[in-house]
Specification:
Strand order of the largest sheet: 2-1-3-10-4
Shape: globular
Number of helices: 16
Structural class: alpha/beta
Distance between the termini: 47 Å
Largest sheet: 5 strands, mixed
Length: 344
């Protein structure tokens, strides 16, 4: 415990130095300003397309000066890993962060639902459930006592398999014997095993070198991994298995949230909603552009495959999730209800 406290204290000191001590004393207008200075950190490159869509939050918040809020963005993981950022938000040292649902599953196991393969039937189901599910909203607010709540999300796209070999991933048999980079997540590793592959957990930053050196034979991610992370230089095929739609979640410190007025809270929620709408409008074009670029590097793209063998292979993972209890079943059933009724 003492060791953990020392590590957290060291991280806090580094954050104070990295962000600038003066910034922290400006919160709530304690130095000559009545504006609340909110700091949001994330791991995307600041000059990337996604980094640009996140930076738009600063403009949205500034539109209504009467709210007296400003947002500063700290991209590229300058404040540490996603796990570290969650801990900083919990401690009230960092105001907000964009965190993958996969990482949040380490803090609240119910978030692992978003890692379930084929939880969503497609993009429309994904967008509909994320925008309208009250049970998802309940999950977002359920961590208040843990030091943070979720106040927004963006619908990161479908994850798909890509390999160094030019072969379509049409069944678990194709992945048999292949080492596939996995997120550091038990659900993701179980998924790859169920789909026939051998998972090799590692951070995304390690994937390029691992592909290059033959440590892994392939990976699974959205199209932007090919272009932003330059995997297009190494891999030969990309197959639209569309096995996971995993959102990224914006969290805010409970301490910071409770200091805002009701009007400021509502306004911030509105800004995050607009931020996601802006991202959704741009997302499909971003993915199309990414695949055009990848194909120019010689990546063979396989679309419209029969996903049935994969869906059948991962059903035990769904059953294991549901066996965890009623709250898990409720969340699962509610999300599934938005597949049948897109008018909800």
């Amino acid at each position: 415990m003492k060791k953990t406290s020392k590590i957290l204290l060291t991280v806090i000191v580094v954050v104070l130095l990295g962000i600038g001590v003066s910034t922290f004393f400006k919160v709530n207008g304690s130095i000559g300003s009545d504006k609340i200075q909110l700091r949001l950190a994330h791991g995307q490159a600041g000059d990337s397309e996604i980094g640009g869509t996140i930076a738009y939050l600063s403009d949205l918040v500034a539109e209504d000066e009467s709210m007296n809020m400003e947002v500063s963005i700290y991209p590229s993981g300058v404040l540490g890993s996603e796990t570290a950022m969650v801990e900083l938000v919990q401690a009230g040292v960092l105001d907000m962060a964009k965190i993958s649902a996969n990482t949040l599953g380490q803090f609240d196991d119910r978030y692992t639902i978003f890692s379930l393969p084929y939880l969503f039937k497609g993009q429309e189901h994904y967008y509909n459930a994320m925008a309208n599910s009250q049970v998802i909203r309940e999950l977002f607010n359920a961590t208040e006592d843990a030091g943070y709540i979720a106040i927004g999300y963006y619908c990161n796209g479908a994850r798909n398999f890509y390999l160094k070999d030019d072969v379509a991933v049409t069944s678990p048999a194709v992945l048999k014997g292949k080492k596939i980079r996995s997120m550091v997540s038990s659900t993701s590793m179980d998924m790859i095993e169920a789909m026939g592959g051998s998972p090799v957990p590692m951070s995304s930053s390690e994937t390029y070198t691992s592909l290059q050196q033959g440590i892994v034979d392939g990976a699974e991610n959205t199209e932007l991994a090919l272009t932003v992370d330059k995997h297009e230089e190494i891999v030969k095929s990309y197959t639209y298995t569309e096995h996971q739609y995993t959102p990224d979640i914006y969290i805010i410190s409970t301490k910071v949230w409770n200091k805002l007025s009701k009007e400021q809270q509502d306004y911030l929620l509105e800004c995050f909603s607009k931020l996601n709408d802006n991202f959704v409008q741009k997302y499909n074009q971003m993915m199309d552009d990414a695949m055009t670029e990848a194909e120019s590097y010689g990546v063979h793209v396989y679309r419209d495959i029969d996903k049935t063998p994969f869906i059948e292979a991962v059903q035990p993972i769904h059953q294991n999730f549901l066996a965890k209890g009623d709250s898990y079943q409720k969340l699962y059933d509610d999300i599934q209800s938005y597949a049948e009724d897109t008018s909800k």
